[in-house]
Amino acid sequence: MKKTKLVSAADDTVNLQDFITANLHLVPVPSVPEISLYTAHPASGLSKLGNKDIYGDDHPPYWAYRWAGGTVLARHILDHQKMVAGRRLLDLGSGSGIVGIAAAKAGAKVVVSVDIDPHASIANRLNAAVNEAQVTVICQDILDNEPPETDIIAVGDLFYDANLAAKVTAYLDKCIAVGLTVIVGDPGRDYLPRERLQKLSKYPVPDFGDGKTSSTDESAVYFFKSKP
Ligand SMILES: C[S@@+](CC[C@H](N)C(=O)[O-])C[C@H]1O[C@@H](n2cnc3c(N)ncnc32)[C@H](O)[C@@H]1O
Predict the structure, then answer these.
(1) Sequential DSSP letters for 48-116
(2) What is the per-residue pLDDT across 111-167, written as a single tens digit (0 to 9) for each?
(3) Cα(85) to centroid(ligand 1), Å
(4) Is the shortest distance between the CB of 207 and ligand 1 below 6 Å?
(5) Which label site among 11, 34, 56, 169 has the fewest CB atoms less than 10 Å from its CB?
(6) Distance, CA 125 to ligand 1 centroid (Å)?
(7) What is the fold of 14-224?
Protein backbone atom coordinates (compact mmCIF):
# COMPACT_ATOMS: atom_id res chain seq x y z
CA MET A 1 0.00 0.00 0.00
CA LYS A 2 1.33 3.46 -0.94
CA LYS A 3 2.23 5.73 2.03
CA THR A 4 1.16 9.39 2.00
CA LYS A 5 3.58 12.26 2.62
CA LEU A 6 2.68 14.69 5.43
CA VAL A 7 2.95 18.40 4.68
CA SER A 8 3.33 20.92 7.48
CA ALA A 9 0.66 23.65 7.49
CA ALA A 10 1.41 27.32 8.22
CA ASP A 11 -0.88 28.96 10.77
CA ASP A 12 -1.84 32.48 11.67
CA THR A 13 -0.60 32.00 15.20
CA VAL A 14 0.17 35.35 16.73
CA ASN A 15 -3.05 36.18 18.59
CA LEU A 16 -3.72 32.77 20.03
CA GLN A 17 -0.08 32.39 21.05
CA ASP A 18 -0.34 35.66 22.95
CA PHE A 19 -3.62 34.54 24.54
CA ILE A 20 -2.17 31.23 25.69
CA THR A 21 1.02 32.65 27.14
CA ALA A 22 -0.88 35.46 28.90
CA ASN A 23 -3.84 33.48 30.25
CA LEU A 24 -2.96 29.81 30.73
CA HIS A 25 -0.65 28.45 33.40
CA LEU A 26 2.51 26.66 32.33
CA VAL A 27 2.62 23.82 34.87
CA PRO A 28 4.19 20.36 35.16
CA VAL A 29 1.83 17.50 34.32
CA PRO A 30 0.91 15.42 37.39
CA SER A 31 2.37 11.92 36.85
CA VAL A 32 4.60 13.31 34.08
CA PRO A 33 6.57 16.11 35.79
CA GLU A 34 9.25 15.98 33.07
CA ILE A 35 6.76 17.84 30.84
CA SER A 36 5.11 21.22 31.49
CA LEU A 37 2.04 22.28 29.51
CA TYR A 38 0.02 25.46 29.09
CA THR A 39 -3.06 24.41 31.06
CA ALA A 40 -6.53 25.89 31.62
CA HIS A 41 -7.64 27.10 35.05
CA PRO A 42 -10.89 28.71 36.24
CA ALA A 43 -9.82 32.23 35.26
CA SER A 44 -8.27 31.47 31.85
CA GLY A 45 -11.23 32.87 29.87
CA LEU A 46 -11.12 30.11 27.27
CA SER A 47 -14.77 30.60 26.32
CA LYS A 48 -13.68 33.77 24.46
CA LEU A 49 -11.95 31.58 21.87
CA GLY A 50 -15.05 29.69 20.73
CA ASN A 51 -14.78 26.23 19.18
CA LYS A 52 -17.97 26.06 17.09
CA ASP A 53 -16.11 25.72 13.78
CA ILE A 54 -14.28 22.60 14.84
CA TYR A 55 -16.50 20.72 17.24
CA GLY A 56 -19.95 22.11 16.38
CA ASP A 57 -20.58 23.26 19.94
CA ASP A 58 -18.89 25.23 22.69
CA HIS A 59 -16.87 22.28 23.89
CA PRO A 60 -13.89 23.42 25.96
CA PRO A 61 -10.74 23.14 23.87
CA TYR A 62 -9.18 19.73 24.25
CA TRP A 63 -5.64 21.10 23.98
CA ALA A 64 -5.93 23.11 27.21
CA TYR A 65 -6.61 20.10 29.45
CA ARG A 66 -4.86 16.91 30.48
CA TRP A 67 -6.46 13.72 29.20
CA ALA A 68 -5.68 10.42 30.83
CA GLY A 69 -5.01 8.73 27.47
CA GLY A 70 -2.21 11.08 26.46
CA THR A 71 -0.86 11.29 29.99
CA VAL A 72 -0.56 7.53 30.39
CA LEU A 73 1.07 7.21 26.96
CA ALA A 74 3.59 9.93 27.82
CA ARG A 75 4.40 8.21 31.13
CA HIS A 76 4.86 4.87 29.37
CA ILE A 77 7.07 6.34 26.64
CA LEU A 78 9.31 8.11 29.17
CA ASP A 79 9.60 4.90 31.22
CA HIS A 80 10.27 2.73 28.12
CA GLN A 81 12.41 5.01 25.98
CA LYS A 82 13.85 2.16 23.87
CA MET A 83 10.39 1.69 22.38
CA VAL A 84 10.68 4.98 20.46
CA ALA A 85 14.40 5.90 20.50
CA GLY A 86 15.73 6.31 16.96
CA ARG A 87 12.29 5.68 15.43
CA ARG A 88 9.69 7.92 13.78
CA LEU A 89 6.46 8.51 15.71
CA LEU A 90 3.18 10.14 14.70
CA ASP A 91 0.92 11.40 17.52
CA LEU A 92 -2.64 11.17 16.19
CA GLY A 93 -5.14 13.60 17.78
CA SER A 94 -2.30 15.31 19.58
CA GLY A 95 -4.22 18.00 21.51
CA SER A 96 -1.68 19.72 23.80
CA GLY A 97 1.06 17.62 22.21
CA ILE A 98 2.01 15.71 25.36
CA VAL A 99 2.61 12.38 23.62
CA GLY A 100 4.82 13.75 20.86
CA ILE A 101 6.78 15.80 23.39
CA ALA A 102 7.40 12.66 25.47
CA ALA A 103 8.53 10.81 22.34
CA ALA A 104 10.96 13.58 21.38
CA LYS A 105 12.38 13.60 24.92
CA ALA A 106 12.74 9.82 24.74
CA GLY A 107 14.91 10.10 21.62
CA ALA A 108 12.49 9.53 18.76
CA LYS A 109 14.21 10.39 15.46
CA VAL A 110 11.21 12.21 13.95
CA VAL A 111 8.02 13.26 15.73
CA VAL A 112 4.92 14.48 13.89
CA SER A 113 1.84 15.64 15.81
CA VAL A 114 -1.48 15.69 13.95
CA ASP A 115 -4.78 17.25 15.03
CA ILE A 116 -7.79 18.69 13.20
CA ASP A 117 -8.02 21.68 15.55
CA PRO A 118 -5.95 24.69 14.40
CA HIS A 119 -5.90 26.03 17.96
CA ALA A 120 -4.44 22.72 19.13
CA SER A 121 -1.66 23.08 16.57
CA ILE A 122 -0.70 26.46 18.00
CA ALA A 123 -0.79 25.21 21.60
CA ASN A 124 1.14 22.10 20.59
CA ARG A 125 3.91 24.19 19.00
CA LEU A 126 4.16 26.38 22.10
CA ASN A 127 4.23 23.36 24.41
CA ALA A 128 6.88 21.65 22.27
CA ALA A 129 9.02 24.80 22.32
CA VAL A 130 8.90 25.30 26.10
CA ASN A 131 9.80 21.64 26.58
CA GLU A 132 12.64 21.93 24.03
CA ALA A 133 11.11 19.11 22.00
CA GLN A 134 11.59 18.89 18.24
CA VAL A 135 8.10 18.22 16.86
CA THR A 136 6.50 18.92 13.46
CA VAL A 137 2.88 19.94 14.02
CA ILE A 138 0.28 19.32 11.32
CA CYS A 139 -3.33 20.49 11.27
CA GLN A 140 -5.12 18.02 9.01
CA ASP A 141 -7.63 15.18 9.05
CA ILE A 142 -5.58 12.24 7.81
CA LEU A 143 -8.04 9.47 8.69
CA ASP A 144 -9.15 8.95 5.06
CA ASN A 145 -5.55 8.98 3.82
CA GLU A 146 -3.19 6.12 3.24
CA PRO A 147 -0.83 5.27 6.16
CA PRO A 148 1.80 7.95 6.89
CA GLU A 149 5.57 7.72 6.60
CA THR A 150 6.34 6.75 10.18
CA ASP A 151 7.20 3.73 12.32
CA ILE A 152 4.87 4.17 15.28
CA ILE A 153 1.41 5.71 15.57
CA ALA A 154 0.48 6.83 19.10
CA VAL A 155 -3.20 7.37 19.86
CA GLY A 156 -4.03 9.18 23.11
CA ASP A 157 -7.69 9.32 24.15
CA LEU A 158 -9.50 9.19 20.79
CA PHE A 159 -12.21 6.64 21.63
CA TYR A 160 -14.72 8.98 23.31
CA ASP A 161 -17.11 9.26 20.35
CA ALA A 162 -18.65 6.40 18.34
CA ASN A 163 -18.08 7.86 14.85
CA LEU A 164 -14.56 9.00 15.61
CA ALA A 165 -13.70 5.65 17.19
CA ALA A 166 -14.91 3.80 14.09
CA LYS A 167 -12.89 6.05 11.76
CA VAL A 168 -9.77 5.82 13.92
CA THR A 169 -10.07 2.02 14.13
CA ALA A 170 -10.37 1.73 10.33
CA TYR A 171 -7.34 4.01 9.90
CA LEU A 172 -5.29 2.02 12.41
CA ASP A 173 -6.19 -1.16 10.55
CA LYS A 174 -4.67 0.33 7.39
CA CYS A 175 -1.57 1.31 9.38
CA ILE A 176 -0.91 -2.09 10.93
CA ALA A 177 -1.53 -3.71 7.52
CA VAL A 178 1.63 -1.97 6.22
CA GLY A 179 3.66 -2.92 9.29
CA LEU A 180 3.37 0.16 11.49
CA THR A 181 3.32 -0.26 15.27
CA VAL A 182 0.25 1.29 16.91
CA ILE A 183 0.11 2.16 20.62
CA VAL A 184 -3.01 3.42 22.36
CA GLY A 185 -3.40 5.20 25.70
CA ASP A 186 -6.89 5.27 27.17
CA PRO A 187 -8.73 5.38 30.52
CA GLY A 188 -11.49 3.07 29.24
CA ARG A 189 -13.70 5.44 27.25
CA ASP A 190 -17.02 4.13 25.95
CA TYR A 191 -15.86 3.24 22.41
CA LEU A 192 -12.44 1.78 23.20
CA PRO A 193 -12.05 -1.30 20.92
CA ARG A 194 -10.99 -3.55 23.81
CA GLU A 195 -11.01 -6.73 21.73
CA ARG A 196 -8.30 -5.24 19.49
CA LEU A 197 -5.94 -4.27 22.34
CA GLN A 198 -3.11 -5.96 24.21
CA LYS A 199 -2.25 -4.27 27.52
CA LEU A 200 1.35 -3.14 28.00
CA SER A 201 1.16 -1.10 31.21
CA LYS A 202 -1.18 0.67 33.59
CA TYR A 203 -0.69 3.87 35.60
CA PRO A 204 -2.91 5.93 37.93
CA VAL A 205 -3.00 9.30 36.14
CA PRO A 206 -5.29 12.31 36.43
CA ASP A 207 -8.14 12.64 33.93
CA PHE A 208 -10.04 15.70 32.82
CA GLY A 209 -12.58 13.39 31.15
CA ASP A 210 -16.16 14.59 31.08
CA GLY A 211 -15.47 17.96 32.64
CA LYS A 212 -14.12 16.80 35.99
CA THR A 213 -10.54 16.48 37.07
CA SER A 214 -10.42 13.08 38.66
CA SER A 215 -7.87 10.33 39.10
CA THR A 216 -8.31 6.97 37.43
CA ASP A 217 -6.32 3.79 37.91
CA GLU A 218 -7.93 2.34 34.77
CA SER A 219 -5.68 4.19 32.37
CA ALA A 220 -3.53 1.88 30.34
CA VAL A 221 -1.25 1.65 27.33
CA TYR A 222 -1.97 -1.00 24.73
CA PHE A 223 -0.71 -2.39 21.43
CA PHE A 224 -3.43 -2.22 18.77
CA LYS A 225 -3.61 -5.71 17.21
CA SER A 226 -4.84 -6.95 13.86
CA LYS A 227 -8.33 -8.49 13.60
CA PRO A 228 -8.43 -12.08 14.89
C1 LIG B 1 -9.50 13.92 24.15
S2 LIG B 1 -8.42 14.86 23.17
C3 LIG B 1 -6.88 14.00 23.40
C4 LIG B 1 -5.68 14.86 23.15
C5 LIG B 1 -4.32 14.18 23.40
N6 LIG B 1 -4.11 13.03 22.57
C7 LIG B 1 -4.21 13.78 24.84
O8 LIG B 1 -4.44 12.62 25.17
O9 LIG B 1 -3.94 14.67 25.67
C10 LIG B 1 -8.85 14.38 21.49
C11 LIG B 1 -8.12 15.15 20.40
O12 LIG B 1 -8.37 14.52 19.14
C13 LIG B 1 -8.54 15.53 18.17
N14 LIG B 1 -9.27 14.96 17.04
C15 LIG B 1 -10.59 14.73 16.90
N16 LIG B 1 -10.86 14.19 15.69
C17 LIG B 1 -9.66 14.09 15.05
C18 LIG B 1 -9.26 13.63 13.76
N19 LIG B 1 -10.14 13.18 12.86
N20 LIG B 1 -7.96 13.68 13.44
C21 LIG B 1 -7.04 14.14 14.31
N22 LIG B 1 -7.36 14.62 15.55
C23 LIG B 1 -8.65 14.58 15.90
C24 LIG B 1 -9.28 16.64 18.91
O25 LIG B 1 -9.18 17.87 18.22
C26 LIG B 1 -8.56 16.60 20.24
O27 LIG B 1 -7.44 17.45 20.25
Answers:
(1) GT--HHHHSS-PPPGGGS--HHHHHHHHHHHH-GGGTTTSEEEEET-TT-HHHHHHHHTT-SEEEEEES
(2) 999 999 999 999 999 999 999 999 999 999 999 999 999 999 999 999 999 999 999
(3) 24
(4) no
(5) 56
(6) 15
(7) Rossmann fold (3.40.50)
